[in-house]
UniProtKB/TrEMBL annotation:
PROSITE patterns: HIT_2
Superkingdom of the organism of origin: Bacteria
EC annotation from Swiss-Prot or TrEMBL: 2.1.1.-
Biological process per Gene Ontology, one example term: methylation
Gene3D superfamilies cross-referenced by the UniProt entry: HIT-like
Protein name in UniProt: HIT family protein
GO molecular function, one term: methyltransferase activity
Top class in the EC scheme: transferase
Alphabetical UniProt keywords: Methyltransferase, Transferase
Pfam families named among the record's database cross-references: HIT
Length: 142
């Protein structure tokens, strides 16, 4: 079985760096806000060099990732009271392991379909971005 070369250290994929904003550094993951004001959308990126798939994490890391997904989901539910929470680890275009946690609402721009490819991302205005990060940060610390 061919293995993917693993870098010596963790680096955030350049596309994730462009598409997301930092919120918090958790025990395993960087917690980031996707720059799409259509949905409250968090991305968890495990700081594990070379990780592409869940199976690239050891058992302890997988358990910790599950706990951090739970934290992100509860954060979105507590702040936004969505109808549904979507959780996905796709990574077809960005191979670095990352997990999306998305708050969904009946009547959101893609409802009830998946968010990918439905409507163009709507970047946050600078003011809305500051407010969204402040709101999520306060809830994280709460």
């Amino acid at each position: 079985m061919a293995r993917h070369p693993e870098p010596d250290h963790y680096e955030l994929h350049p596309q994730l760096a462009v598409d997301t904003h930092p919120l918090s550094s958790l025990a395993l993951c960087d917690l980031r806000l996707l720059d799409d004001a259509n949905y409250p959308w968090l991305v968890l990126v495990p700081r594990v060099a070379g990780a592409r798939e869940l199976v690239d994490l050891d058992a302890a890391q997988r358990h910790l990732l599950t706990d951090e997904i739970d934290l992100a989901a509860r954060l979105l539910r507590g702040v936004f009271q969505p109808f549904k929470l979507n959780v996905a680890a796709l990574g077809n275009l960005v191979p670095q392991l990352h997990v999306h946690v998305i708050a969904r609402f009946e009547g959101d721009p893609a409802w009830p379909a998946p968010v990918w490819g439905r409507v163009a991302a709507r970047p946050y205005s600078p003011e809305a971005l500051v407010e969204r990060i402040r709101l999520l940060d306060a809830a994280l610390r709460g």
